[in-house]
Amino acid sequence: MYRKKIERVLLIVPPTGLFIREDRCQTPIEELKTVSLRPPINLMYAAAMFEQGGCECRLRDFPAERLDWHDLKQEITLFKPDLLLISATLPSLESDLQSAAVAKKINPEIITVAKGAHFNVHPRETLEQFPSLDMVLRGEYEFTCLELAQGKPPENIPGLTFRTPEGNIIHTPDRPFIANLDELPFPARHLVRNELYFRPDTMETQTTVITNRGCPFDCIFCLAGNVAGRKNRTRSVDNIIAELRECVERFNIRNFLFRSDLFTANKQWIIHLCKRLIDEGLAIQWSCNSRVDTLDEEMLSWMRRAGCWLIAFGVEKSSDEMLKKINKRATVNDARRAISLTRKAGIKSSIYLLFGLPWDTPEILQQDIDFAKELEPDFLEIFYVYPFPGTPLYEMAVEMGLLSGRTFPTAAYSAPAMPTLYMSIEELARWRRRALRQYYLRPGFILKTLRHAGSPKAVLNYTRYGLTQLADLIFHR
């Protein structure tokens, strides 16, 4: 079955909803206020590797293109792929993997493959549950894709769990994390409609550039260590600059999300990158993430000069006690300092708060909202925590009776996935909208946002978006 040469590969974001599908970040975005759709960067890397192995590839983001199951069937029928690679998230797993069954009905010989963080923890169980799925990719799978394209026997490919023609499930050894990220080709941006992914304030095309992988911290809710390891691996500055130049010159993209598990871990690397961005004269703008305890004035000054317009911070909670419970290894004073320094540098800030932790009470959630008002970031997003298998939070939730073992909620991020020890799901569900109303509907905040929008186009977009959100927050209580 798997000995046939793979010549055509179809890589898909299935028509199951708008999600960010970056393995660590599995976020449904339709109900979120500050998160815009990102290009399917993991599939783009996989496609680049399949192409390097000699395959013809197509990549379709069905939700972004507003396409449905009929379009997927038509794509499979006309393109006749030898292999289908499905990007799956845990909250949408069952519907995502229906794509494998659809493909098998059209061509029983097609090889159906799925990628996603869930398969690092439950690969064998997934294949047992979904008989139309032939393989799952585990760990960093770019070189797994290359070896599949080259025709290497599956049993000799690390990081693969697959079903044999006889129905046996084979689990090969784990694949080591990629030591030198410069070995990877640039993502296959020529296969996607880049204009579908845009910066939310100006609506200009924006793409993702992965600069680092791995995080040495171990927050109880985070998949970073599971997906990318504990070591923060950085690409070389030369390699990043070359990708940015390709984006500018070939695709006319000048807005970027520098995606990493921890972007600001290495001050000297950051400053070196910023100096090169200035020297190259690419005239780009970019955003990034950061912990609240890894910034200083010098770093922020160089970031601002090099085109950084926004930094997103995982503030998470408003008390040191709660931060200790989630093993954040940062303090509320770190958050105060980070937002203050960022504002002083002339860079906008966005913060993420977590609702729905096991210990949350109404009083704690109100304290979180009040803390956000004190910090006064330019953007606030509130996520309900999701208990991903492979994280300590999942084990805690099961032990506390908040979640049944082997239960994977479909609600995520904008809706509570589980109750807390003190609040029901129904109580929690009311709090996010309440919090966003309290934060965003303050007249002073609205005036400040419009005053600092930066351009007439941004003012128009903020106004249009704000009116939409205003109606949503008022009429959907």
Give me a quick take on this structure.
The protein has 477 residues and is of the alpha/beta class. It folds into three domains: 8-171, Rossmann fold, CATH 3.40.50.280; 198-433, Alpha-Beta Barrel (TIM Barrel), CATH 3.20.20.70; 441-477.
Rg, rounded, reads: 22 Å
Distance between the termini: 54 Å
CATH topology of the largest domain: the name is: TIM Barrel
CATH-level-4 superfamily name of the largest domain:
Aldolase class I
Main β sheet profile:
7 strands, mixed
How large is the count of helical segments? 18
The figure for the number of domains is 3
Strand content: 15-25%
CATH secondary-structure class of the largest domain: Alpha Beta
Question: Within the largest sheet, what's the order of strands?
Answer: 4-1-5-6-7-8-9
Give the strand tally. 17
Q: Which blocks of ≥5 consecutive residues have pLDDT under 50?
A: none
| Class derived from helix and strand content | alpha/beta
Shape, principal axes of CA atoms: globular
Kindly report the average pLDDT value: 93
Helix content: 25-40%
Tell me the CATH architecture of the largest domain: Alpha-Beta Barrel
Tell me what you see in this structure.
- With 477 residues, this protein is α/β, with parallel strands linked by helices.
- It has 3 domains: 164 residues, 3-Layer(aba) Sandwich (Rossmann fold), CATH 3.40.50.280; 236 residues, Aldolase class I (TIM Barrel); 37 residues.
- It is 39% helix and 17% strand.
- A 7-stranded mixed beta sheet has the order 4-1-5-6-7-8-9, with helices on both faces. Strands 10-13-14-15-16-17 form a 6-stranded parallel beta sheet.
- Helix 10 runs parallel beside helix 11.
- The longest helix is centred in the C-terminal third of the chain and has 20 residues.
- The protein is globular, with a radius of gyration of 22 Å.
